[in-house]
Amino acid sequence: HLTYLIGAGASKNALPLDNDLMSVLRELTSKRKEYGNLSEDVITQRYLESFESRFKNVVELATREKSIDTLAKIHQYDSDMFYNIKNLIWSYFSIAAGRNILDYRYKNLLMKVQDDNASRFKIKDNVSFISWNYDLQIEESIASIDKIEIWKVAEKYYTYPGYELLNPDLMNRNANPKLFKLIHLNGCAGFYRKIPSNNYTHWCGCDISDPYQFNKFVNLVEQNLYTNTINSNSNRNSISFAFENN
């Protein structure tokens, strides 16, 4: 069996790293200056204000520490800040997903491990992937090749935690670990659990230069990730850090 371990930098031709990541996070959390005077029909101002005030401080502190991971470890016992850090990471990588901006190396790799005897694209049975990364670059690349929606990749190729988030009941009943093709060790962006119904759903892509799209995303974050009192059971996205005991 051949398992590929995907680490930091594997998506660098599509997504920013380090200082470049701080730059895009700063842009994401500074839209009120641009959209603050638009009507409520375009931008829900109270959500825009809370989104920016909640996350702008995270970006400033992460810039000072030179790393958002370092910031998370410093604040791991501050539940409010820790929760905000995770939700900002989830927000950025969810926005970045589904925009057909791919690191070309993923497709090159997938072509090398496809089953040439299959009638359509299929990864060889003896190949799997483990990723340290939050992004959905592998899923997006598979979706592009297999001509399916990115969210169907989680079901067809058994990705974790994607499969669990979309099919929690099925996962608990009869999921076979040997079927899983991709494991995100620290969770992934793009999927979240709706409260209070406890069903899971997904988000894909957002053009933050479009106020209507940005408004839709900000409303989703504020309404779905901040509906209940923050406590140890209220992490509604799957993002985690390597130092956590989960």
What would you say this structure looks like, in words?
The model has no long low-confidence stretch (mean pLDDT 87). Strand 5 (191-193) and strand 6 (200-202) form a beta hairpin. The protein has helices at 18-28, 32-35, 45-65, 68-74, 79-96, 104-112, 137-146, 150-156, 162-166, 168-174, 211-224, and strands at residues 2-6, 127-131, 159-160, 182-184, 191-193, 200-202. The radius of gyration is 18 Å and the shape is globular. It has a 4-stranded parallel sheet with strand order 1-2-4-3. Strands 5-6 form a two-stranded antiparallel sheet. With 246 residues, it is an alpha/beta fold. Helices cover 46% and strands 9% of the residues. It contains 11 helices and 6 strands.
Annotation keywords:
single chain, 246 residues, alpha/beta, four-stranded parallel beta sheet, two-stranded antiparallel ribbon, 11 helices, 6 strands, 46% helix
Give a quick summary of the entry.
This protein is an alpha/beta fold.
Radius of gyration: 18 Å
* Terminal-residue CA separation: 26 Å
- Mean of all residue-level pLDDT scores: 87
Low-confidence stretches: none
Oligomer: single chain
SS field, number of helical segments: 11
Q: What portion of the residues fall into strands of 2 or more residues?
A: 5-15%
Shape annotation: globular
The structure class reads alpha/beta
Listing every helix as H and every strand as E from the N terminus to the C terminus, the arrangement reads EHHHHHHEHHEHHEEEH
**Main pleated sheet:** 4 strands, parallel
Proportion in helices: 40-55%
- Strands of the widest sheet, in order across it, are 1-2-4-3
Number of strands: 6
